[in-house]
UniProtKB/TrEMBL annotation:
Residue span, C2H2-type domain: 40-70
Keyword list, A-Z: Metal-binding, Zinc, Zinc-finger
GO MF, any single term: zinc ion binding
Region (Disordered): 1-20, 71-93
Designated name of the protein: C2H2-type domain-containing protein
Length: 93
């Protein structure tokens, strides 16, 4: 079986002469945010299943864990206005 030597020979860095400007401009990835990419992870019983919404997570809970417990949820979307969500009211003086 082939394996790499524990010490790899060094060589001077050289300029990239094959990539085109268009290739460099092309996005390989991008930063996202909670609004564009909702993330809900079921942390119940070390499940760690990733789901796209709180609703999907609760459906998964009911089906796969036989519970409607809404704890043990990892998300960056904050309160989602479900039963536990608190509506913000504007106070008029
Ligand atoms: Zn789960």
């Amino acid at each position: 079986m082939m394996s790499l030597p524990s010490i790899l020979p060094s060589k001077p860095a050289i300029q990239d002469t094959t990539s085109t400007v268009d290739e460099i401009k092309q996005q390989l990835g991008r930063a996202t945010n909670p609004e564009a990419t909702p993330i809900f992870i079921c942390a119940l019983d070390e499940c760690y299943r990733l789901l796209p919404s709180q609703k999907a997570l609760m459906m998964h809970r009911k089906k796969d864990h036989q519970t409607e417990d809404d704890g043990w949820m990892i998300t960056w979307n904050g309160a989602t206005g479900g039963s536990g969500g608190e509506k913000v009211k504007e106070e008029v003086e």
